[in-house]
Amino acid sequence: MSDNDLLENIHWLMDVLQNIDVGLVMLDQNYNVELWNSFMQNHSAKLPTDVLGSNIFSTFPELPESWFRRKVESVKVLRNSSFTTWEQRPYLFKFRNYRPVTGMTEFMYQNCTIMPITNARSEITQICLIIYDVTEVAANRLQLQRANSKLHIISKTDGLTGLLNRKHWEEGLEHEFKRHQRYQHTCSLLMFDIDHFKRINDTYGHPAGDEVIRQTAAVVKKCVRDIDICGRYGGEEFTVILVDTNQEGAMVVAERLRKAIEANTIYYDEHVINYTISLGISEITSGISNHTEWIDASDRGLYRAKRAGRNQTQIYNQD
Amino acid sequence: MSAILNMSEDQRDALQEVTNVAMGQAGDRLARLLDTFVVLSIPHIDIMEPQDIAMTLQSIDTTDSISGVCQGFIGGGIAGEAILLYNDTSFVDLARLLQFEGDLDEQAERELLMDTTNVLFGACIKGLAEQIDMDFSFGPPMVLGQHQKISEMFDPNTSVWKHALVTEINYKLEGYNVNCDLLILMTDESIIRLMHKIDYLLE
Fold first, then answer.
1. I need a surface site. Which of A34, A145, A278, B44 has the fewest CB within 10 A?
2. Mutate which of A80, A86, A144 to disrupt the B interface (most B C-beta within 10 Å)?
3. What are B56-68's pLDDT values in tens digits?
4. What ipTM was assigned to the predicted interfaces of this complex?
């Protein structure tokens, strides 16, 4: 090959390296920049003349120095490439997103390969950084994660009230019951339903009924602690697991809730709706051997309250 | 016809030997980098079916204290995947080992896992590549079971391969609570090429 051909080859090779849409950086042993291709130029808004020969850490203070040196050290000793992905570190160089308007992320997510470069005697003379723009992948993945966590919430809650749905609430109940068996924590279950709910539906219509359910749930959330586990058990039936609470404590909560509902007036269209609830309580005692019996006991309390004339709370002791 | 099932005793011995030597070199490199003594088990070579791999990986889904990282390599018609399983490994120790400074949040833990994998696996496969005179490209390491359960990601019933040659090595680092198993998996297509290389050594 003539010198001319060789020059020609080097020329087009350099052209490719310059224009490839991947960042290429070469560093010497002292972390001074020896190559800065046009991808790096354009994204960093720094010209080769500003960067070449200068120390990478002083030019790019955002690069975590001790971490990066450690990475490069391992590359040198193992003579093996090392990687960072956007999930570990979103970026090595803080570049703006390629598409500032529709890009969805503020900066460019990067994967990076740190590669040893050897001379003819296979001594490591330089370190090459390859920077990949993976913003698209990262944005998609992050979106998927957000969608999944939304789905996760939807799968656990009841759409109308935002309380736990029955299936998920029952899992919580089972869990609490097991916890009680292991640690003998006091725990009470409160179950209530709306008095004459069918009449509300029939008189004011189902949308009004839905509003009653929604507001009831809102009152429940206000009356209990964050640690209590509230669920919508059925149509107009609600349940609350009162953690570390005995039946007397549960009675206080229940009465507070009952009075709050009694005092709550719902305005729906032209209707003014007042309503009450009946409540049943059961504390776990030795007579209750599984979580279904526990529900059953509260249900009996609720039934007693209904029989005794509604708008009241009854404790049921299973002994 | 499966190249894996048809490996001769000699080929298997040779592969075992090549791996032994590679691991010796890897141990040396690692000791120098990490400044600690690396206890490596003798590589164990085995043939596994998709079901076996699925069972091995199942522990990542079900046990909090087990994490896994995988990394692919390819070159000269040989391609494979390494899986590192960390058993009850202390992240505090991993951080100490890699001289990681900063808070050990979830992201830092992930980074430590990926870095450790790259270092351990890099040292090992580099030694292996030198033995058989090859040069491999590596993909970035990926933490398993992070976005998706492994049982959803890898279904043994629909996998296209039937047998994999698995080289298993256990690592322990003296003075650190770090214990992991490295599995290097290669499927039939790769074994044909690998055996050409091994046969060359046997001649």
1. A145
2. A80
3. 888 777 777 788 8
4. 0.72
